[in-house]
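Protein in question quoted for reference:
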Amino acid sequence: MSNKVTVKTIREMKEDGKKIVALTAYDSSFARVVDEQGVDIILVGDSLGMVIQGHESTVPVSVDDIIYHSKAVEPQTKHSLVMADLPFMSYTNPNQAITNAARLMQEGHAHIIKLEGGEAQLDTVRHMTRHGVPVCAHIGLTPQTVHKLGGYKVQGRDNKVAKQMLSDALALQDAGADAVVLECVPVDLAEKITKKLEIPTIGIGAGRVCDGQVLVLQDMIGISDLAPKFSLNFLVDGRNIPEAIKAYVDAVRDGTFPTDQQCFF
């Protein structure tokens, strides 16, 4: 029996209480290593704009950029589900979104498409899922709107914003989303959302109660200039890179990552 992770697999993992491990990769070499260490989801994220291209934000990343990197990643995956980001301004309406999602899947060979935003994206998510496109939503801190948010700040500490985020998560699920990334969200809010949803939550700076965790590879091996508070360098204690990735996988699975130091309260 194949151990290839699918959208159905991650839903079953939530139901069974098994933690989902996600990690970024942007090229063939790292994709192979990440896949071999048992990571469930490889995210070809628009974070490549910062860690690969050297930009100050994800905004300059194009659909062609994501396709290029996703196309390099997918052939190396025997286990991992490949998730690709729709970058900034590539999904301003449902038709544009599905056109670009189709390119990410047909040209970039992605298995599931991630997009940022809550209530404003409901029509887009419905349109995509009705046409057979698996979708992962992304709420909380949404890096593509960092200029509007006024910086990389925790989202959901205000009661009104927290209520809206919970409402958004439930609405995205009803619209057909297969998973939700929660970024830079207080632990109690992430826990409330995770318990309310039937689809899995994948946290990044959202506490250990989420159904899974995702990190940027360059952050977790300690080579980013400014690693965020919610990350941890696993390339320590004499480990090589495959061992560091395996340590991350094990820490997510057994609940020892994230620690309180990587969480927001």
The chain is about 40% helix and 15% strand. The domain at 7-262 is CATH 3.20.20.60 (TIM Barrel). Residues 170 and 197 are 7 Å apart (CA to CA).
